[in-house]
Amino acid sequence: xxxxxxxxxxxxxxxxLRPSCAVSGYTGNSYCxxxxxxxxxxxxxxxxxxxxxxxxxxxDSVKGRFTISRDNAVHLQMNGLTPExxxxxxxxxxxxxxxxxxxxxxNPTTYWGQGTQVTVSS
Length: 122
Fold this sequence. Notes:
By secondary structure, the protein is mainly β. It contains no helices and 11 strands.
């Protein structure tokens, strides 16, 4: 499995970005995908997750502003960006039965991208 992120960048507050994560190596659509970023006081924060069937969850701070979607890649539409959204964003995937488990996302079969930087200036 290989993940390759793109689409980060620098914008002013209120702007939009759409990072994408190209996913290869899975058979079919059996994997879930999520975006993570570092968070104060935590190792990381799960920003958004999408299941193989399209069920989505979001962390509270991005609800109504970010939308995760998938086709042959996983996308994160980020609208209404604020300086607090500045971070390196990482894409992660795993087989659907590992997503949300007690060991998620530290399962041995979770795959990570290299990260894409999002910078929001005030």
